[in-house]
């Protein structure tokens, strides 16, 4: 541990004397009026939020400090890290209640609060925007089959795809989160505290701090074509909002449609950008319906072993038995990132999810066509999930009957 | 919120009267002597750890309770969720200091503590083991090219791969973690508390609680072939230990070798299992060197924009400027999962990382051959990372000279 580490434990449950210097006025029209989000641990007196930067990764920073490889007083050198493209400001940024789970000014802190940073205030970006080239085996196969054509701008010969991408850490404005979930801020704070077994007592002791940097996963946004076009209703926008599924997205597990539907989202986004439109894939870190992978694998076992086998008819019931809830992804917060990008209309939504669709419509975003996954892209063992979801309200031209539902049985455990 | 929710806020910073009923004796030889890990929020009196189950996902459970869709008193119905295969017990489970970051009994709680669970104690698995079929475009291409042959057991016609997989949530035994990082338990607890801006005051107020369920990502293990063979030194074991990189693992970004090396690990694991051996891929949720994706994208921008372009010679420097540390993955804890699986020898390690290698050797695991990624699988823009790592000690037959290092320049930002 560095020798200049503070030697007394700082209590966080009582206001620091200077906390008033950096008030946050959520949804104010400019960055200056809104004020900077300060989650620094190097100058606690400046803090105006609960929690700290980097979500879960703050625990790894703590290990780095423990191991003596990171100074506890370290601050980022932000030279050359600024966004590769402008995003906003858009009117949605200051419409009350539109954005409650991320900081719309999170990518421009160097520009908006440069003077304060120069003065020594530890203000950090919660959003980073860069460019990348992607190369995916499935897209290469589509090029080879003649189904995708390189154009030299979006899709290159050899299969490279040019994208602009943004990583977004969660920044929760607690009054807005409570409203979105139909509860009071007081109840929300108390439940967050109790259900995490006491993480951040400030949730209940510091009602003056309304912003929380929760240690949960963030969002990655992939933009195909011109980022500014996302906010232009006249430019056709193809969009997939995808929730993380490591087992399929990375390892190609055939029990769900996650990676095939993600590929379809990327493919259609490329086509849209090639045809004068724009494409967007939003990737939310919400593994296993935001219940985590341990719960997910427990549910797989319960599904495969139940009497009658892995049935579409009992698909949601098994998750509810193990987790107490069918799904914890809560699409209510998902449209925030669309508001951040200035989106008011999605011309083609690559999703069958009624929850995603309704969350977008509730937030005032117009949706044109909804595009199902083609039957020939549904992996063998994923029909159980697909039929169960259709029966539960997923958008589909052909919702199954109860008899069909009962007949849809997945692969038994002993032939995995 | 359910009507039977407790109406007073429970303080967690003072011992509950019955806490002594479930003492934890870490590394005890049997599950009964070790005692159950109880992170329940439904009966706080039984708790014997700091934090709660599900890592980060406890915050989503809290949102589910806030939204009224999950009872705050819910407990899992574990019927049919038990592991699909035995793992252990192995001697490593009770050797002091061998396993400090997961609960080796985490998958057998239903069996080991069934009586207590029946009595109403809320004991939950921290590990789940299931089976799966994988299907990946890259493997299908290798089959088509004749480089992989289906055998009907490990690799099926049509490209399906049979695996056993386990999801593992972190369970940190703080005295052991401190020892692994060369610090005192007192300093570790204090640093975890301070660097997270005050997450879990019990870290500093409750020295009697030595186990912490941190809200960080876990581990997924993919086993190719017979799981019991992992612990048999005579059965050839091919292994890749892979740290998460969403940009490459899922989206195929060409700035690093992550997905190509992961595919190689899977491919070689399949070959090993087909040849009478066994294969293992360990996937650690440590995005962006455990610094997170926002930091990663900031570093990409700083690399591409620095004077002289994206150079291998300054590769590590750029991360250190932004994050204060080159890498926060800390392979010191990584071998725990290998001990859990009973592994004492890895015949073929599909990795060039000196940090992973040294961590394994330090933990008494014998390593045979180390297998580099073939040059023709390194994506175009990833040579910067690869040459920088070789120069820094990565295993390679051909470490670059300083002049070669200076000549390795990546794609400039304006031609992304």
From TrEMBL, chains A, B:
CDD domains: GTP_cyclohydro2. Residues 8-195 form the GTP cyclohydrolase N-terminal domain. It holds the Pfam family GTP_cyclohydro2. It comes from the Bacteria. Residues 228-372 form the GTP cyclohydrolase II domain. The keyword Membrane does not apply. InterPro entries: GTP_CH_N (IPR022163), GTP_cyclohydro_II (IPR032677), RibA (IPR000926), RibA-like_sf (IPR036144). Its EC number is 3.5.4.25. SUPFAM superfamilies: RibA-like. One of its GO terms (molecular function) is GTP cyclohydrolase II activity. It is an enzyme of class 3 (hydrolase). The keyword GTP-binding applies. Keywords: GTP-binding, Hydrolase, Nucleotide-binding. PANTHER family: PTHR47259, URACIL-REGULATED PROTEIN 1. This is GTP cyclohydrolase II. It comes from Paeniroseomonas aquatica.
